[in-house]
Every structure is written in C-alpha cells, then in structure tokens.
C-alpha cells in the first residue's frame, strides 16, 4: 500500500514577463520518500521548488502541502504552514559571522519560546545528526563545502519539519563528499521518516537517493517523465530521458 501524499502539485504553470517556463505540471510526493526533481539547465527545476515553498505564486494550478493549499493561505496561517517545511539552499546560506550552532539556533529564536540553554541543546543534537557534533563552534569560513551543506541541512531541520527541500545539495562537491551527502540524506529519510524533495541534475546522486522523480524539459516546457529513476534509465522510450540518464548527446 502506497504511503499517503504530503504534497500535491496540480496543473501548475510558471510564467514570467509573458514567457512560459513550464505548464501542466502535476505530481504527488509521498510521506517518507526522497523525491527528486531533475532535468537539464534552464528547465525550471529551481523555479518549481520556489513555487512549492511559497516564494512564487502560480500562474495557473495549485500546490497542496500537508493538506493545505499554500497559494490560498495568508498571514499567520501561511507562516504556520511554512514552519512545517525546511529548506537548504545550494550555497548552504549560512551566516558568516555566526558559528554553526548559532546558525541553527536562528529559526529557534524566531519561531519558538525556548530558553537559550534549550536552543543550544537542540542545535547540538541537529549538528550531531549530520555528523558535525565537533564543529558547533566553528565559523562557516572554517569548514569545507561539504560541511557547509550538512550544516545547512541541520539548520533546515531545526524546527523538526516533516518535509525538507534541498536545492542542488551536491553542486560543487567532489565525488566522495557528494556520495557522503547522498548517504546522509538516505539515512535521515530512513531514520527520521522525513520527506525530502531534492532538486538536482547530478546523475549519480539521483540514482543513489531517489525513490521517485519527475523530469522537466526546457523544450517541452513541462514534465516529460515520472517514476523510479532507475526504471526510467533502463526502460524509458523517450529519447530525451534516455539521453539524460545515459549521458548521451542527442543527434540534431
């Protein structure tokens, strides 16, 4: 029996200045899975993510998260829903003048009434979950790119959201560091039951972490594939999908 859906995207369209980025995009994300949004450069992956976390308003269609339509919510109701999702941006987006622990305490200070001692404890626990328990007092400039990505995930988990969105988590990382980050994502999904929505075009990561995926295409201005990425690699009859997974160049 399939797990319940925690995200539903229905006939979504994104348009800016009269230009259509994508349209008629529909899919569901199930509780506890690692769901990957993939595709080539310029296909709208990050634009789709920004719609899903409420930064952009749909030109058409809608997005339901945890049973609520995010585009219809306003004020306190919208903020309450947004506190139930966490986001890690491509750069990690850490505050450079704050330690890793202080970075993780920022959402706790903004959204909870926890005393300083409790916030510090939560920060230490979250850093431990991503393998950075010994780096709590280090500044972002003092850590590697891979550690910054892990710290970004820890901060995204600060409020215990059931859904985490990761934007290009493997970008800029060497293969070994990237594989370690992939293993961490799988471990967190398994151990915590967290649902992950991951935007990436890194083929090795897609195959390592993805339970299911959708593929966007710039020319089609929408979805061209949905399913288990390994099955798409092996059985898709779409030449664009095959070329992506097999790293082939399409003939002109």
UniProtKB/TrEMBL annotation:
It comes from the Bacteria. Pfam families: ABC_tran (PF00005). The keyword Protein transport does not apply. Keywords: ATP-binding, Nucleotide-binding, Transport. One of its GO terms (molecular function) is ATP binding. Residues 7-243 form the ABC transporter domain. This is ATP-binding cassette domain-containing protein. It comes from Siccirubricoccus deserti.
């Amino acid at each position: 029996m399939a797990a319940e859906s925690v995200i539903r995207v229905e006939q979504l369209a994104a348009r800016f200045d009269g230009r259509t980025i994508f349209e008629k995009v529909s899919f569901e994300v199930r509780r506890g899975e690692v769901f990957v949004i993939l595709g080539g450069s310029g296909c709208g992956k990050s634009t789709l993510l920004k719609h899903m976390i409420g930064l952009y308003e749909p030109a058409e269609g809608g997005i339901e998260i945890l049973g609520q339509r995010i585009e219809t919510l306003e004020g306190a109701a919208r903020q309450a829903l947004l506190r139930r999702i966490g986001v890690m941006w491509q750069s990690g987006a850490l505050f450079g003048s704050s330690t890793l622990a202080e970075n993780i305490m920022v959402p706790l200070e903004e959204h909870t009434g926890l005393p300083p001692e409790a916030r510090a404890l939560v920060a230490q626990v979250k850093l431990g979950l991503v393998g950075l328990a010994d780096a709590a007092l280090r500044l972002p400039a003092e850590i590697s790119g891979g550690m910054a990505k892990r710290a970004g995930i820890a901060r995204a988990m600060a409020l215990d959201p059931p859904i985490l969105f990761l934007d290009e988590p493997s970008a800029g990382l060497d293969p070994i560091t990237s594989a370690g980050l992939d293993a961490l994502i799988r471990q967190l999904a398994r151990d915590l039951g967290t649902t992950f929505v991951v935007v990436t075009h890194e083929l090795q990561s897609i195959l390592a972490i993805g339970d299911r995926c959708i593929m966007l295409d710039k020319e089609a201005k929408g979805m061209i594939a949905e399913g288990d990425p390994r099955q798409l690699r092996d059985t898709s009859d779409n030449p664009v999908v095959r070329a992506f997974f097999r790293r082939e160049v399409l003939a002109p």
